[in-house]
Amino acid sequence: MTITSFVKTLQNIMRNDAGISGDAQRIEQIVWMLFLKVYDAKEQQWEFDDDDFESIIPEEFRWCNWAVDEKDGEARTGEALLDFVNNDLFPALKSIEVDELIPINKAIVRFAFEDANNYMKDGVLLRQVINVIDDIDFTDYKKRHAFNEIYEQILKDLQAQRASGEFYTPRAVTDFITHMIKPQLGEHIADFACGTGGFLTSTLNYLKAQIKTTEDNDLYSKSVFGIEKKAFPYLLCLTNLLLHDMDNPQVIHGNSLEKNVRDYEEKDKFEVIMMNPPYGGSEKESIKMNFPIELRSSETADLFLSTIMYRLKQNGRAAVILPDGFMFGVDGAKRAIKEKIIKEFNLHTIIRLPNSVFAPYTSITTNILFFEKTEPTKDIWFYRVDMPDGYKNFSKTKPIKLEHLQSAMEWWNNREVIEEETGFKANKYSVQQIIDGDYNLDLCSYPHEEETILEPHELITIYQKQRERLNNEIDNILDEIEKTLGEQ
């Protein structure tokens, strides 16, 4: 079954179910079943490797014992299946007891189902969906990795749902940032608002090529760490990491901003941090109190940037995607955050992305800040990525691709000033220039067409001339038509 047909088949079945409204809810329904199916395949592998392995899921609730249809007429369906899922399966998974002694690969079942729901009301349709998902053999390594493409399609479909689009950062962007940061085996890489795990899986794909020994495999399995506040993207992320052979995904379901940043110790810090924090949100006053008074911003993304600065190890490196509002913002907190990052870190590069990179969720223009905890900033390089030829905007059908960032990748290794008629496409600014400009980072920006505001009588005159021209064109066309008809 192809990538598109798999998702569409499931969505088409669920469109006939009265309990589900909209594609976002349909995808959420698919994901909890996918998680159980993938987890069941993992358990079969763990049982094969360890004779003493015991599932944390009671036997009757393991996928292989209730979901598999042997085509013998014994599989649950209809009301019996609905009753089992709603009144037995979900309560059992939500009530699994977890403590600090339970391994992560077991505890994640409870965490995954804490806020999950079954929306379907038709047990026959639910059986059809389960059978489609069960047809995929996740115990086969090649098939499991081929399914990553299907899973990526699910995440892209989520992006089209405005309520859920924030969970997905385009693969081209996460891969680009990862290639610029160059994480290495043995380093610990974090994302404190990891969503569906885009940065984490880009990192794993990058690290895979570095594995040479059994010891390398151990380093690989402990390389990434994430925190996600919202339940649904957390479940998506866990499934994503299991598909990438992370048997013990180090992902926490929680709010990264809940701890006082001044309480972080060395053990809480990371060599590499890559993030696309949520924009435009606001936190409770009690959350803002976790930051020094001068850094207490009303913008969630600003608070995450401060968190990164407190959790980056000495000589560590970071990349964070921020909206334009941060670049030109000069209110108290934004200015203080910029001053801190410039004086205490080496903010060496800012890549400016064109609008619609995150379409259709948002058309906001974003920027990637690259910095290191090494020395104070001396110079900042800016590079503007322009819209590809033939593109007016990115969209669901024409998304940004890694090839669209190739020019930035080539420039990265051979930096030079690029000046155009409309201004600088790439340029280096000294830290003193930034300070003199009151920490405004809105440099090498996109050229804007100037809008000329005319007096009302001038506008009327222009309108009358345009109308006269159009009327003449219409009269000429009608004359040609009459001549043609008269000659027949």
Q: Give start-end ranges of low-pLDDT stretches.
A: 449-454
What is the overall silhouette?
A: globular
What top-tier CATH class of the largest domain fits best? Answer: Alpha Beta
- Number of helices, counting only DSSP H or I runs of 4 residues or more: 18
β-sheet strand percentage: 5-15%
What characteristics describe this protein?
alpha/beta, 488 residues, 18 helices, ten-stranded mixed β-sheet
Written description of the protein model:
- There is one protein chain.
- The chain has 488 residues and is an alpha/beta fold.
- The chain has two domains: 3-153, N6 adenine-specific DNA methyltransferase, N-terminal domain (Ferritin); 157-436, 3-Layer(aba) Sandwich (Rossmann fold), CATH 3.40.50.150.
- Helix content is 46%, strand content 12%.
- The chain has 18 helices and ten strands.
- It has helices at 3-14, 23-49, 63-66, 78-94, 104-113, 123-134, 141-159, 171-181, 198-208, 214-221, 231-243, 285-288, 300-311, 324-328, 332-344, 406-413, 431-436, 456-486; strands at 189-191, 224-228, 251-253, 270-275, 312-323, 346-352, 366-372, 379-384, 418-420, 423-430.
- It has a ten-stranded mixed beta sheet, sandwiched between helices.
- Strand 9 and strand 10 form a beta hairpin.
- Helix 1 runs antiparallel to helix 6 (123-134), helix 8 (171-181) packs across helix 9 and helix 13 (300-311) runs parallel beside helix 15.
- Mean pLDDT is 87; it is low at 449-454.
